[in-house]
Design a protein that fits this description.
- Pfam families: NUDIX (PF00293).
- By secondary structure, this protein is of the alpha+beta class.
- It has a single domain (about 5-180), classed as Alpha-Beta Complex (Nucleoside Triphosphate Pyrophosphohydrolase).
- The protein has helices at about 5-20, 55-60, 110-120, 210-220, and strands at about 30-40, 80-85, 95-100, 100-105, 130-135, 140, 145-150, 165-175, 185-190, 190-200, 205.
């Protein structure tokens, strides 16, 4: 069942973010970054074909399990968030799933950084008044503290991805975050902490993006206050 994109959803998420005692990270050795969790409207069936050339960059490498082929298909419908596939030419985490975002400029707030990165990466310029609130900080293995900024897009919007940074952008229905097989956790020898996996389409989204999306579900949709900052990233995301 899709989730209606309406004023009731907007007000619910805004109220839950306002009432939430946000967990922050003040480690001065880590660099600060922000990501934009942009909530938009979408239509069922508009994403039957994944525009990204997934088969080309996978290059015949086997996927981790049956049913996963890396494609983001059949995920749209109702209230959704914007999810990006990073460009293959990027030096850091090429072709991985990500929310629009990046490092803070000197003197910049997390809100300003999220809105700036959204404009630079997807060509979407939104005012500060569209911000509903902030999720918890997430410290990454690569030396960043990421602050997720939740933004109400007030409709469908019209993303125009910057080709140097974004291969494709998808409208992923919020109902996909509540799939019966989500979240998943696995163990790795490199860490005692569980690695979180969020199944979307025909792929798995890992932390930090997966952790942000899990808290969006738990807090924004279900009113749960569970922390996500201790959920582990897979080793390929540690660099």
């Amino acid at each position: 069942m899709t989730i209606a994109y309406d004023d009731a959803l907007r007000d619910q998420i805004r109220a839950r973010l306002a009432d939430h005692h946000r967990r922050t990270v003040t480690d001065s050795t880590k660099r600060r970054a922000a990501v934009a969790v942009v909530l938009v409207d979408s239509e069922v069936g508009e994403d039957r074909i994944d525009p990204a050339p997934v088969d080309e960059w996978i290059g015949g490498r086997p996927m981790p399990e049956a049913g996963l082929d890396g494609h983001m298909v059949d995920v749209a419908g109702g209230a959704a968030f914007l999810l990006c596939r990073r460009a293959t030419r990027m030096t850091s985490h090429p072709a991985q799933w990500a929310l629009p975002g990046g490092r803070l400029d000197p003197g910049e707030s997390v809100v300003d950084a999220a809105l700036r990165e959204l404009d630079e990466e997807l060509g979407i310029a939104l005012p500060e008044s569209t911000v509903l609130g902030l999720l918890d900080d997430y410290p990454t293995r690569s030396g960043y503290v990421i602050t997720p900024v939740v933004i109400w897009g007030s409709g469908r919007l019209d993303p125009r991805p910057a080709p140097d940074e974004v291969m494709a952008v998808y409208r992923v229905g919020l109902h996909q975050l509540q799939r019966a097989d989500s979240p998943r956790y696995i163990s790795i020898p490199e860490s005692p902490r569980p690695v979180v996996q969020i199944p979307l389409g025909h792929d798995l989204i890992h932390a930090p993006t997966g952790a942000v999306l899990l808290q969006l579900r738990w807090l924004g949709l279900e009113g749960r206050d569970d922390p996500v900052d201790e959920l582990e990233q897979p080793p390929f995301a540690w660099k």
